[in-house]
Amino acid sequence: MSSDFESYEQDFAVLTAEITGRIGKVPKLVGDDKKQMVANVEKQLEEARELLEQMELEVREIPPQSRGMYSSRMRSYKQEMGKLEADFKRSRIAYSDEVRNELLGDDGNSSENQLIKLREERAHLLDNTERLERSSRRLEAGYQIAVETEQIGQEMLENLSHDREKIQRARERLRETDANLGKSSRILTGMLRRIIQNRILIVVLAVIIIFTAIMAIYFSVKGR
């Protein structure tokens, strides 16, 4: 598992190094060349995000006792990713001295002021966009926490439902046991009653036989 994570780490390091180099080239380009470079960087940023997602999935599979170190590394990679995205956004509105002079031409001062103003406005818009993205990420994280909490609640309810069913089955078995014990008690009581009756009958018969024998002996002796 950790070997897969380290493999993703190596890919991420190589990819971010390439992205950093290309971001540095963006301000020096204009027109179609700049558009092409921007498209390439956007593609590589998307690949880097996918690598981060794969790495995060790998971290979730690591045992809890070993997860802390990898989680810390993931946080640093996410920070690096955020810095790259911010640098890329700034590079899209930045110009090198050579490109700026080429764009300004002869009308240097007024055009430069307009360009500075434009850059300030775009930087302001970029800051607003970043704030919106941060708010969106916080909302997404809150939503994820709510979903996970709901899942935990559902699991707890399911467990409680299973426990309730087990308790109900145990109660039914207890009722059946009580009923069986009641039947057994009645059977034993009946058997004891019949035994007592039989013993009484035997005693009565024994008394009658003894009495009859005594009377027979008595009349036999008296007749002589």
Using the alpha-carbon principal axes, give the shape.
rod-shaped
Order of helices and strands: HHHHH
Percent of sequence in beta strands: under 5%
> How many alpha or pi helices?
5
Low-confidence stretches: none
Number of strands: 0
> What would you call the structural class?
mainly alpha
Q: Please give the largest β-sheet.
A: none
Oligomer: single chain
Question: What's the Cα radius of gyration?
Answer: 47 Å
Spatial gap, N to C terminus? 118 Å
Structure notes:
With 224 residues, the protein is mostly helical. The protein is built from five helices and no strands. The chain has helices spanning 2-25, 31-61, 64-93, 97-104, 108-223. α1 (2-25) runs antiparallel to α2. The longest helix has 116 residues, at 108-223. It is rod-shaped and about 165 Å long. 5% of the residues are buried.
